[in-house]
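> example.struct
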């Protein structure tokens, strides 16, 4: 249960935000949604500060698992999300938000979940790093083709926005680690907690801004996010099994595919000026995937 404390804290905060949204929208003329992008960039900086060349060594040891993992990451979740929008009728921007979540790279919690599930942590680190670095190219292409009929997608503008949210902060984080990391060990230890609570703050701010739309479609949207996440776990795992990968690699790919970077989806929705609609599926998907991922990891931990 200790591992679920953060997730339950987020759920409690979301419920409180739905009941009393005003304090979480802003203070006077200051609107809290302006902090979404800086918070996300801080999370990406934290990821970059922990990146090492060894994270990519698994490419040489298990090229088949790496190629399949990245392929499943950018095919299963985007097309499952697109399929769910065809089955369930949502307003265009919320439907596009579901697809947006599916087009994201792996979530930052996937490495911890892989460790708990006795999966291949080295493979998990490699897949997370590669998928995140490929996102500025692949995510806009997928969104243009799968969600272009729902909302207007400016391909190159999206490439630039994701680059600002991912590539630049990660590059700064890598430089920081190389030049100054050893001088401030306390900051390095604090970064995971800072990143975790930054995600929580993003979820609360989005929930407050999209409260009316969320109340209107809430239960159905929660169901869709649950299905999206579960299908990701199942198809990722069985994709690995059918490809005759080792059990530990199959577990890793399942977790990498099922856990999306919902924070990045939120930041992109904010950059597009649609945080109250396009960002809603990401706000729900985050807590849902953490509950399911923790349960799955604990199940595999005993097997």
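> example.seq
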């Amino acid at each position: 249960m200790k591992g679920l404390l953060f997730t339950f804290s987020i759920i409690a905060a979301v419920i409180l935000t739905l009941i009393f949204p005003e304090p979480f929208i802003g203070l006077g003329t200051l609107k809290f949604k302006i902090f979404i992008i800086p918070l996300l960039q801080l999370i990406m900086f934290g990821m970059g500060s922990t990146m090492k060349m060894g994270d990519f060594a698994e490419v040489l040891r298990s090229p088949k698992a790496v190629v399949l993992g990245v392929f499943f990451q950018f095919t299963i979740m985007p097309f499952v999300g697109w399929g769910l929008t065809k089955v369930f009728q949502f307003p265009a921007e919320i439907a596009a938000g579901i697809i947006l979540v599916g087009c994201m790279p792996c979530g930052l919690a996937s490495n911890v979940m892989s460790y708990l599930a006795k999966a291949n942590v080295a493979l998990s680190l490699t897949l997370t790093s590669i998928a995140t670095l490929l996102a500025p190219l692949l995510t806009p292409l997928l969104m243009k083709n799968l969600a272009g009929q729902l909302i207007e997608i400016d391909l190159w503008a999206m490439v630039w926005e994701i680059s600002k949210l991912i590539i630049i902060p990660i590059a700064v984080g890598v430089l920081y680690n190389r030049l100054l990391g050893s001088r401030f060990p306390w900051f390095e230890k604090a970064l995971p907690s800072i990143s975790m609570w930054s995600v929580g703050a993003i979820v609360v701010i989005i929930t407050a801004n999209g409260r009316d739309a969320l109340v209107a479609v809430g239960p159905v949207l929660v169901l869709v996010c649950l299905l999206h996440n579960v299908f990701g776990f199942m198809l990722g795992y069985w994709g690995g099994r059918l490809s005759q990968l080792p059990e530990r690699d199959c577990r890793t790919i399942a977790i990498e595919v099922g856990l999306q970077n919902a924070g990045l989806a939120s930041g992109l929705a904010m950059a597009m000026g649609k945080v109250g609609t396009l960002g809603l599926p990401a706000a729900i998907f985050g807590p849902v995937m953490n509950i399911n991922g923790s349960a799955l990891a604990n199940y595999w931990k005993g097997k």
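> remarks
The mean pLDDT is 83.
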